Amino acid sequence: MSPRPEKPIPRRGLSRVEAAIYLGISPSKFDEMRADGRVGPPKIIDARKVYDIRMLDEVFDALPIDNHESEEWHATV
């Protein structure tokens, strides 16, 4: 019997690069969004800065939606 593959452990704190990837942007765009206040400050664990995934979800939810009224979009079930 082969060993079961380990499941990834969900993490709440992400590094700067991981946070950028999570939002679907480059680290430099992440830095721009930090500088202009669209992304909040990191949490500090000893000397390490980590970004709360819940805060990143709020940042993403607050982004504007591309509203092309001529396009129709329907969710598929």
Description:
It is built from three helices and three strands; from the N terminus they run E-H-H-E-E-H. It is flat and about 55 Å long. The model has no long low-confidence stretch (mean pLDDT 90). The protein has a three-stranded antiparallel sheet with strand order 1-3-2. With 77 residues, the chain is α+β, with helices and mostly antiparallel strands. It has a domain at 13-62. Strand 2 (43-45) and strand 3 form a beta hairpin. The relative contact order is 0.17. The protein has helices spanning 16-23, 27-35, 53-62, and strands at residues 13-14, 43-45, 48-52.
Query: Mind describing the biggest β-sheet?
Result: 3 strands, antiparallel
Q: Tell how many strands the DSSP assignment holds.
A: 3
- Rg over alpha carbons: 17 Å
- In terms of quaternary structure, what is this? single chain
Low-confidence parts: none
- From the helix content, strand content and strand pairing, which structural class follows? alpha+beta
The number of helices is 3
Helix content: 25-40%
Order of helices and strands: EHHEEH
Span between N and C termini? 38 Å
In percent terms, what proportion of residues is strand?
A: 5-15%
Strand order of the largest sheet: 1-3-2
Query: What is the residue-mean pLDDT, rounded to a whole number?
Result: 90
Shape: flat
